[in-house]
Fold this protein.
Amino acid sequence: MIETTYESTLRELRTDEGVLRYHEAGQGPPLLMLHGSGPGVTGWRNYRGNLAFFAEHFRCLVLEFPGFGVSDPTDEHPMVAAPSAVLRFLRGLGLDQVDVIGNSMGGIVAANLAIARPDLFRRIVTIGGVGRNIFSPSPGEGIKLLMDFTEDPTREKLIRWLHSMVFNPAVVTEEMIEERWQQATDPKTLESARRMYSREAMAAAAAASDQAPYWSMLHKITAPTLITWGRDDRVSPVDMALLPMRTIPRAEVHVLPDCGHWAMIEQKEAWESTVLAFLTRPDGGTAG
């Protein structure tokens, strides 16, 4: 088994817009892993439990987005800064095309890049988040709790938000709460989070009309795409998957029961086996 400790996998890439930090493990075809957003999130925390599994088959690259307290900070909205960070990262490593896994925000970043750069990704895997609410209220429960924490960061509000991320509350351990609390309350990280999830920022984003929303352009994604979702997701409800399922030409969907927003954590083995089968499928495309 490949060693995948924090220290043994941590790397740095110096770019013209600051240092990008990432975790690297394994050999083989490159697999980019993009994390989600929220208090105390990092790429390592999203994917540390999956890294050893995928490192047996791929050169895994877990990028830390600017604005989340690991890579150098950014003055931009983190969602705006993320796509250019991915392109700088891949360019710095000399990679023209990769497979990509994106969790929530990371999936949206991957979708936007795939729309703009159709040849960038060989295959795409998303975990929740991509699409738009159809039958469920927007924003979802988890997003409202995220806004509550961002505007008034207390330990109790962090715990309530963490519990909204999972189906099984036992997943939220004291260790998880503590490490998330330390990261989420760092002043620069909190300032960056407020650019995304304060009520003022959310209202401004909803009112913006200078360009078409990304979900209206999902039909431009040409790469085979696997959409994975927790059936019991309270952050981005599963009805959001209907739009990308119907509009991404080569999309397929896998919904995991007894599972919240973190499918790669809460249904680890089932999610990993599904994703590996998709990424290693000989025909390189969707079933059928």
Notes: The two ends are 34 Å apart (CA to CA). The CA atoms of residues 142 and 235 lie 4 Å apart.
